[in-house]
Amino acid sequence: xxxxxxxxxxxxxxFIYYLFGKAVCLRYHWDLIVxxxxxLGFFLYFGAFQVIALIMIFTQQKLHVLGFTWGIILxxxxxxxxxxxxxxxxxxxAAQAEPAGTEKWEGLFLAALIAAIVCECLxxxxxxxxxxxxxxxxxxxxxxxxxxxxxxxxxxxSGMKLSHLDLxxxxxGFYMNTAWIAQLxxxxxxxxxxxxxxxxxxxxxxxxxxxxxxxxxGRNKKKSALLVTIVIVMTVFWDVYDTSAQFLLLRGYExxxxxxxxxxxxxxxxLYRIWKRDDRMQNWAELFLVAFASVxxxxxxxxxxxALIVLMMLAHICVTKRWDWTLIRRTLYCLLPxxxxxxxxxxxxxxxxxxxxx
Length: 358
What we know:
Blueprint: H1 2-28, H2 34-58, H3 63-92, H4 106-127, H5 132-148, H6 167-170, H7 174-185, H8 189-216, H9 221-237, H10 244-250, H11 255-276, H12 281-297, H13 301-320, H14 325-349
Helix pairs in contact: 1-2, 1-3, 1-8, 2-3, 2-8, 2-12, 3-7, 4-8, 4-9, 5-7, 7-8, 8-9, 8-11, 10-11, 11-12, 11-13, 12-13, 12-14, 13-14
């Protein structure tokens, strides 16, 4: 029964991601493919959740207060998204063009891609296992939070009460998202992490890769599906531990796996689009959203995402051999969220900012 509940959580999660992403696309007239819409919705979800989670964590509210508050807000956001989708589709129904016919062999390529994704998910479920201290701490942190109805108050390994919040973990709401769901549905956090979070990581990673491939190949479905299928095959059979591929399959339940396989690929994809046509505000808006939500997904993003963005800016300056102040200004805007997180974390590491546990 618990596995059925996990499957339902996975389906509902992706439905919410699609709902959020589709509403934004219709509202602002963004022309995105379905995999990118889902990724957009994923970052919208965690960007919004992070705002509520940080308030609750730093004021040391109970976990059930976070769950109740976020549940109400989530329902309101979902209702607003449904309303936007309904109104926009009703207004644009007459103007919608007839769908294009399916190209020869296109269905076969897409079927092969779906089969490869299913095999990859099954492989991930079989490979995921305890990886020493990290696994014990993350799972212990969530399980302790559920058992004590607190957030980052007790050490995930020893269960001892902390004297102050550890900003290395408290600045990200990723694991508390699992904790409030586990508390709500009465399913152990370890099962949700393995069967929901781990599989979602694989699906989102493939969605980000397909979006990137679709941009490179001019939305050619056959070429995009073929490339992603080849990458999946290489991922499954390339049994090397120190790669993002094995991090995806072996440790997909961890936040840093999302950083390696979802956050960074989406950042690189958006930077590629900006490099091609940097005058479109849509690309910058998406990049800002990914940067804003990146720490919510993984604290590992706090340095890596800004590094990628700065490298793109420097490369653009070197290639064009001129100072593009519009590009620099927009780049600085996208750096702001991570810079703020980095300053707070640095202040905590230096002992300048200490949040004592009640």
